[in-house]
Design goal:
The chain contains two helices and 16 strands. A hairpin with a 5-residue loop joins strand 5 and strand 6. It is mostly beta strands. The protein folds into two domains: about 120 residues, Thrombin, subunit H, CATH 2.40.10; about 100 residues, Thrombin, subunit H (Beta Barrel), CATH 2.40.10. Helix content is about 5%, strand content about 35%. The strands form two sheets. It has a six-stranded antiparallel β-barrel. The protein has a six-stranded antiparallel beta barrel with strand order 9-10-11-16-13-12. It is globular, with a radius of gyration of 17 Å. The longest helix is centred in the first third of the chain and has 11 residues.
Length: about 280
Amino acid sequence: MTTPRMKSAVGALFTVVLCGASALPAAALDESAAPRAAAVNFAGTVSLSNCSGSVVRVPDSQPTDPALVLSNGHCLESGFPGPGEVVVDQPSSRTFGLLNSAGSKVATLRASKVVYGTMTDTDVSLYQLTSTYQKIESSYGIKALELSAARPAQGTAISVVSGYWKRIYNCSVDGFAYRLKEGEWTWKDSVRYTSACQTIGGTSGSPVVDQATKKVVAVNNTGNEDGERCTDNNPCEVAENGTVTVRKGINYAQQTYGIVPCLGIGNKLDLSATGCTLPKP
């Protein structure tokens, strides 16, 4: 598989002369977005070399804690983690382009390590930065996005914010896939978007933001491009009773509320903490 969102990026490559392992059309803002007060914007999102991401905090994070960047496991610079593989505390000097509310790059942030990464049960990566939240806010006036500790509800109005393409998609949570299977990988309790969120490659790792609370409830990761069944770039939904459903053109994200219990004082990862269900190495 070329990455759960890369196949679309290949098509975009010829028109925008960009290389991305996960992507979205190069537009400034979703034209279907209706004008609304306090709309979700780009502040706190980042662009990676091949994906999107965001600077995030959990409710108990402190200003002096090292900041974290959230993206997908399949966006790791080391390549796709295999089924059952979990990456923890690996050195990294990866850079991220920090965006302001208008989508302009205002800084380059640098990682010190990969805190966590996997494509098992979920599709997530967390990087620790060399900068604190306080430093980022005082230098650039940008606050981190907060990870919601609550599971999103069906019908929630959401925005998928791509730092890679500087584009925002607006839709709603259509429902949840008990299991989402794509090639070798299987993800649990995935968010299914309504059809308005037509994300493509480069949007991988984009924060999925609750429009009402402005908190991150999921991380964008894949979609069924060709109507195929359970293949690379064509995930299928598997119900608890084993029924398989294919939804061509529908896109998905992985919930992030389960990350919150796994981060303790100082944003330290603790996979044995009460309530933490992230897969362990």
